[in-house]
Amino acid sequence: EALLKSGQFEEAFDAPFFREFVVKSKRPVGELNDALLTHRIHGGFDLGQDYPELANHWLVAVTEKRTKEEIDNLVKKAVE
């Protein structure tokens, strides 16, 4: 929800999800992931690499191994 509220991402699918979701980024996912790496954050998977029709679609996985702080930091840095 926070990614969508930022205006930097759009909902890709309206189906329910569990721990993994896809959003469409307004900027290239490779660029986004590179920017996150400068903060030592591993971003989501660039679905456009395997599915050209999903260019700029970012697959994000959040599991019990990530704290709320880590997830909030990912969102904060992704929307900068």
Strand order of the largest sheet: 1-2-4-3
**What is Rg?**
12 Å
Helix share, percent: 25-40%
Determine the strand fraction and express it as a percent band. 15-25%
Terminal CA distance reads: 16 Å
Quaternary: single chain
**Helical region count?**
3
N-to-C SSE string, H for helix and E for strand: HEEHEEH
Q: Could you give a short account of the major beta sheet?
A: 4 strands, antiparallel
Structural class estimated from helices and strands: alpha+beta
Number of strands: 4
Q: Label the overall shape.
A: globular
Low-confidence stretches: none
* Overall pLDDT level: 95
Describe this structure in words.
By secondary structure, the protein is an alpha+beta fold. It has 3 helices and 4 strands, in the order αββαββα. It has a 4-stranded antiparallel beta sheet with strand order 1-2-4-3. Strand 1 (9-11) and strand 2 (20-25) form a beta hairpin. The longest helix has 11 residues, at 68-78. It is globular. It starts with a helix and ends with a helix. The mean pLDDT is 95.
What secondary-structure arrangement, pairings included, does this model have?
Blueprint: H1 2-5, E1 9-11, E2 20-25, H2 29-37, E3 45-46, E4 57-61, H3 68-78
Care to give the gist of this entry?
Helices cover 30% and strands 20% of the residues.
Key attributes of the depicted protein:
four-stranded antiparallel beta sheet; alpha+beta; single chain; 4 strands; 30% helix; 80 residues
